[in-house]
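ok trying again, last paste got cut off:
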Amino acid sequence: MILMKKMISEAIEEQVHLMNASAELDAATIASMLEYPPDAAMGDLALPCFKLSKILRNAPVKIAATLAENVKVPALARIEAVNGYLNMFIDGAYLADQILPEVLSKGERYGAPDLGKGKTVVLDYSSPNVAKPFHIGHLGTTVIGHSLKKLHEFAGYKCVGINYLGDWGTQFGKLITAYRLWGDKATVEQGGIDKLVELYVKYHEEAEKDPALNDRARAEFHKLEEGDAENIELWQWFVKISLEEYKKTYAQLGIEFDSYKGESFYTDKMPAQVQKLRDMNLLKIDDGASIVDLEEYGMPPCLILKRDGSTLYPTRDIAAAVYRKETYDFDKAIYVTSAGQSLHFAQWFKVVDMMGYDWADKLVHVPYGTVSINGAKLATRTGNVILLRDLFALAIDKVAAIMEEKNPNLADKEKIAESVGVGAIVFYYLSNNRIRDINFIMEDALSFDGNTGPYVQYTYARTCSVLSKSESYDKNATLTLTAPEETELLKVISRFEETVRDAIDAYEPSIITRYILDLAGAYNRFYHNCSILGAENESVRNTRLALTEAAKTVLGNAFDLICLAKTEKI
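nice, full thing came through this time. structure:
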């Protein structure tokens, strides 16, 4: 569709300049004006000529009529002028000749825009706190972040996925204290992260009765900061236990990271940035704390050091950004966190700018809304926390039960149930605009009907089934479109690259999920209304099998962009 828009826009540009030689309007601007009409009867593309009225000093109705009469583009079957709109109808035969061969030849690279050649993107996402369970609050940063990584990789960027672990701070003094008082190695090895959480909770319960424990915890963390061998060994053990647990969840999602450098890695890199702030006279003392005044930018001050001289999140984030720029020389650094941290990022981004780093404008915060789940059945004893592993397990069990009822003889049921169950949660989450707050309803997410993950994965499995039953077909045969559903399916397929570009520009994975639903809907209408394997002749059969393979390819490519497994059977 991008190429088609270019051809149409260039043809319109030519006519615009014939109407007014001095008109300052190029094809790229015209392309940005093109719209997708809400009703197919109004065309596949439309140009509101109201936007040209001032430039051409003429009525929109007359402009549309003139363009309809004179614009000639091979890709268009017809053009109509209606109430000041130029409505354009794409020729199905042209799509079949141009789009289908391109999809079949490019395969997994179909729809990949050439945006990132020679460019590097660093993405900071997921980043759970060590020794705490991976809960539902991490779902957003994890799946949005990884989807953005996959999108940028697809567009040719070199991507570095960073899991900025919360692996430093006073909580480790508390955990070390709890372990020394009530823990033992065998029990923790057996209980894993759950045992660490149990010890952490017990510490807080006991500290309420005996506040002196807080002094002991601070002392233990101080020893850790000073490099005490025993505390370092315990801390590294806690991190190892936590990562082992987190990686199980990442494996279910098909996610791998390029770096697990957490907060602890930057402890020796912060002093240089604090000194730079001092040298530039950007640091001010306010009630004993060191701050950067941001009043002229309409923001509260950015705290760099506490009264006792200890660092804060902005200090670490600034040091981390400098290290990542020096290490990866990024063209863009993306941070995926909750919308509640928007002010924090705006503040330290501005501080980086004030420090004279000319890459400050390459820092991007991608915020997302909150998520809640109906009911409290998954609440754990640690409070109102819903663990992702529990949520995934529930979804997998429910899908397995549905599959047992619908297809009891299916092979690899456990593996498929995991792909569909986990995929249902991911798809449900990413179906919403990322900034919206989400109320998660499990029954809706797991439905095989409607706008759900199981529905689109079932559609993908359907394309696989059709192709496996066909044995083979002539991919070089002349293509013959005989039904409107075929043309409509091709039109949706042709929009894929444009959709990918839009998702990257907006940092919005939901643009991909909505496209997947459009494509699944178009294929299912085609499947139900057009006989494929039993087509009336070989030419039509070949065409419909080619359409099925193209739909499978593009669905699979789109699935990859949102961490959704490609299920060949359900």
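cool. The chain has 21 helices and 14 strands. The chain has three domains: 2-90, 121-368, 422-560.
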